[in-house]
Amino acid sequence: MLQFESSITIDGDNFDVVVKISSAIPGDPGVHTYPNGDPGYPPSDPEVEFTVYDEDEKDITSKVSDEDIVRLEGEAFNYLGSRAEDAAISAYEDRMEQYGY
Total domain count for the chain? Predict the structure, then answer.
């Protein structure tokens, strides 16, 4: 399970938390019109599901404000994007080494 650290505010107090990502679904760009003229379908937004844990590894997701949830969703997508970029770079470097470049 992928995870990252962040901080949130609950009742005016700041907490360091661990965010564990359970699933991520990329968005679909949709289709305006099919080649045969039939109407397409609208785009869908990407989705990410995660759980927020405090320092005692207790699930506190239900206590997190809507504002922090939106911010943590953004952080989760950024984290996933950086992981994908790192994996692509690593695969490229492995391939270059394999062929002696």
Answer: 1
